[in-house]
Amino acid sequence: MCGRFAMNEDVDDLIRDFVAAGGRAGDWRPSYSVAPTDPAPIVREWRPEGSDSPTREVTLAKWDWPQPAGQPRRGPIINARMEKLDQRFWVGAFSNARCIVPMLGYYEWTGEKGAKQPHFIHGDGLLAAAGVSWASKDADGEWSRVFAVVTREARDASGEVHDRMPAFLEPDTWATWLHPQSITTDDPAESARNRSALIGVLDRTSAAVAATMHPRLVDRRVNSVRAVDPQDPTLIEPLEE
Fold first, then answer.
1. Integer Cα distance of 126 and 103 in angstroms
2. Is the pTM of this model over 0.90?
């Protein structure tokens, strides 16, 4: 499960890439409490028409996913389970539109309802969560980009707080995950092998990153999305002993 995460302004290279790709610097907002349906920066690759090489860009996308056709909306879809990436609902985006979601870490909670204690689970620097992205049409007919974070069974310290965690990528797997060439081919057996192989890569690299994760208790102000300033960096500071 990844219900909220943190992203700060100490990503100068990402911001420069965002502006170079046509984004406005004023659209970029650090957030220490990115909530479902919020916009957040993602990294993706796509191949311009007539080009032999992919273009990598940073863009803002909405943390939400279109509901399955014919099903009532029960809330935003924000996570894609790694174990189901090669199945019907996710297979299109997994095969063709993977992305990276940069984050400092993510929040999970323990305790009873009404007395939930937030934990901030982080690594030693900026993390690269695996994600999938899509161009989606909203109720007004306008196109926008959306994304979901890929999650897996929690490992190491993350498993002490929750049974699920984002699937993180190591730097040497970024290019493989982002490559826009479809892993679905005309051969069903080859497509299945491609998907299984990429899930295997993600399983290994995310397990390795999990071993570097550290949880810490943070202030219960985090519990209320509406009551906090998402640009307040003290949200991720450890509680004083």
1. 6
2. no
